[in-house]
Amino acid sequence: MSIGHTLLGLLESGPRHGYDLKRAFDEKFGHDRPLHYGQVYSTMSRLLKNGLVVVDGIEAGGGPERKRYAVTDAGVTDVQQWLGTPEKPEPYLQSVLYTKVVLALLTGRDAADILDTQRSEHLRSMRILTDRKRGGDLADQLICDHALFHLEADLRWLELTAARLDRLREVVTK
Prior knowledge:
- By secondary structure, the protein is mainly alpha-helical.
- It is about 65% helix and about 10% strand.
- It contains eight helices and three strands; from the N terminus they run αβααββααααα.
- The chain has helices at about 5-10, 20-30, 35-50, 75-85, 95-105, 110-135, 140-165, 165-170; strands at about 15, 55-60, 65-70.
- Strand 2 (about 55-60) and strand 3 (about 65-70) form a beta hairpin.
- It is elongated and about 70 Å long.
- The two termini are about 40 Å apart.
């Protein structure tokens, strides 16, 4: 995820302080990985340096000054271009799980056990996501669906690999 573009997009609704940006980000996108304050302020500093935001106001308080940021026209254009650029699909051609299966076969370990353990972990994760989805709002349901679909694809791969394990052993141990 591009944190900079996300913060710029959040600023399109109006100027905000770093604290407000963090809170909005965490509420909309950071359920599982909230932003650290340092990440917000370092990103805002970079966006400021690049002319994508400006300081719209500074408030003095009991602690450090609170800067209020606003997105510039260049920042809006940058977000528009980012939104219009498709994400590169990730083909997962360098899978850690595939590496573990092949190494197990090469070293005489039980690759089927690795696949079974991974299948159990995937099913556990799917149960957790399904429970979360039932209790979540639409945004949470959609992000859970995204994760569940990926886990389902992984499960299909696990089943296919388990069915081909003997052939794979022959190929990799030649």
